[in-house]
Amino acid sequence: xxxxxxxxxxxxxxxxxxxxxxxxxxxxxxxxxxxxxxxxxxxxxxxxxxxxxxxxxxxxxxxxxxxxxxxxxxxxxxxxxxxxxxxxxxxxxxxxxxxxxxxxxxxxxxxxxxxxxxxxxxxxxxxxxxxxxxxxxxxxxxxxxxxxxxxxxxxxxxxxxxxxxxxxxxxxxxxxxxxxxxxxxxxxxxxxxxxxxxxxxxxxxxxxxxxxxxxxxxxxxxxxxxxxxxxxxxxxxxxxxxxxxxxxxxxxxxxxxxxxxxxxxxxxxxxxxxxxxxxxxxxxxxxxxxxxxxxxxxxxxxxxxxxxxxxxxxxxxxxxxxxxxxxxxxxxxxxxxxxxxxxxxxxxxxxxxxxxxxxxxxxxxxxxxxxxxxxx
Length: 376
Known about the structure:
This protein is of the alpha/beta class. It folds into two domains: 3-290, Rossmann fold (3-Layer(aba) Sandwich), CATH 3.40.50; 296-369, Arc Repressor Mutant, subunit A (Orthogonal Bundle). The protein has 15 helices and 14 strands. Helix 8 packs across helix 9. The radius of gyration is 22 Å and the shape is globular.
């Protein structure tokens, strides 16, 4: 670990910690009712935890998560927290920082701090266990220790979601580097890594980034992570993306929660559609291309895709929003417009629906009927 990383709480680190803390809270509230019946425990695991505080005193993700648990009576009796850092100084500092948290004694399970290198042993251990509902955060300095096997070892069980910090710059340099070939192979899978290396030849920087993120996302989906959502962090000049925070889950509910959180943290929005800070993508990279679709295209796309069908707003959102940047309020806005234009029918119709802030609202249960033939 480059110790200078913890010297100052850089803006991207603050945003990253905020996204993780927000999601942990929302995730915990969703899984808790079922977790009560499964032993009354939930887990937070961070294998690259760092010292807990930046040199300027700002707390990082581990302490934010513990503070949330301490403040919530139910969560304080359920949370099992496991932290690890291979740097012994970081592990010791984290232990001290945890011990100094006000109210730490309220936690039923004392947080565990380990000092190990992340590798095949931890993957084997997690793979052999039936995990309790777990939020798994992986934030390596570069890429060593990050693998598809590690993510899958936790993601395999119910209620388990993963977010990892993907250092694009380091991976971009590592893919053609023979000395780190094995690390790249466990990250992408050997066949895919070889294919990416071949495709990278002659690509422009933006195309290289899109290819790498697209291929990694596809590898995660093939592994069983049905829902994958990247969030980009740009350099200070805003000229290129250097890192991605990538969410992986088998649950649409978790995906929706994370998408809303990432939308709130996006630095830009076009017509209310969050940017997720992506660099421009093209049809060569279909997942990233879908995540840049403008709102004005959404209406015609819905009319064509769902021609002749009737479904609720909730059903439509779950079916159509995956892999696209649109959040629930974007769909409500465009459906209201299409209804006003007479291009679809809603049940109940707008005239009978509740008025809210001067705007007709589309509740999740409202049924939408799309005509069989439309001219968008």
